[in-house]
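Assess this today:

___
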Amino acid sequence: MGSDRSGEVRARELQVRVAASIGAFTETEWSGLAGTSRAAGAETYNPFLSYAFLRSLEEAGCATPRTGWQGQHVRLETADGTLVGAIPCYAKSHSQGEYVFDHGWADAYERAGGSYYPKLQAAIPFTPVTGPRLLTAVGADAPPLEAALAEGLKAVADRLDVSSAHVTFATQAQAETLEGTGFLHRTDQQFHFRNAGYGSYEDFLETLASRKRKALKKERREAVAADITIDRLTGSDITESVWDDFFAFYMDTGSRKWGRPYLNRKFFSLIGQRMAQDILLVMAKRNGRYIAGAINFIGSDALYGRNWGCIENHPFLHFEVCYHQAIDFAIERKLSVVEAGAQGEHKLARGYMPVTTHSAHYIRHAGLRRAVADYLRRERREVEHNIDYYEDHAPFRKDANGE
């Protein structure tokens, strides 16, 4: 599906246009949207919303029409063409790389004779990280612009005659804005570590029940028992040689777990060139070579754990590299939260607590919309039940004495 550059939807004095590539925006334009750069939103910076990250996905060939990610990025402009809002958005020919699963909806619609694909996906490709999706200019009155973006996204879906538009891993506030304009609200859960002002990892351990505290200490010792050392690399320490090692880990684990890794070697070189200060690589070394690693991204107040891989299997090494080291780093940097990616009940025992994630869905066919709405009502109750259950089984102390 080609982009419709000439189409225009009026919202008071504003207009919505569609761009086929993040490259159709200038970097200055994009970086003038709140949260997309440290300069534009130092307190709310999300590295996955940055021009460097999104542009690198396209330039490396990871998020392109060939891979089923056709750019349909929404531009909200004033009458003179000034950018005041945007949505990173793609026309999708499949539901891969999204982490909010709608395969069942697609199957049901196809069996009923409809065509679910293409659909619109307002998302960060391959990235299950919550953040704003209705982006507005720094300093602007955000609520009316967000409402205009929500209406504009619906209008683009109508004009392109796609089945639906999906806004995934939105903030709760923006999910509610979208719901107010006719989107269906969906919830799910992830596990995040919250930094309660700890001075050290030991301070965090002291908040755990005695049995849990001892188990984690033992786990961390055994993770490096085979003469394994841990390096944390960021900035200029991340060389092309390091990327070669990490990519080998990523491909080995990705090929076994998913069958087709989404990211290629060029992508890692590009982000290494463009945003190395926003990247933390935790690398495990044995016998003079790296054997495992995890990539994290550093936001204004959060550390985002993303991909992990290894070429040697050692007990508990995955937990050390992905979870314990991330907590260490967040405490040292005084970051408030570690988001460790999608799913994973095993994170609970390591101090990562359940949080609700949000998405919003505009379903154009009335029958499918009714069926999905009914499903989502039941799913939301199940998510609430699961979160209550996990909170009841948290590893933290139940009383002031710590037992």
Q: What stands out?
A: The CA atoms of residues 27 and 104 lie 38 Å apart.
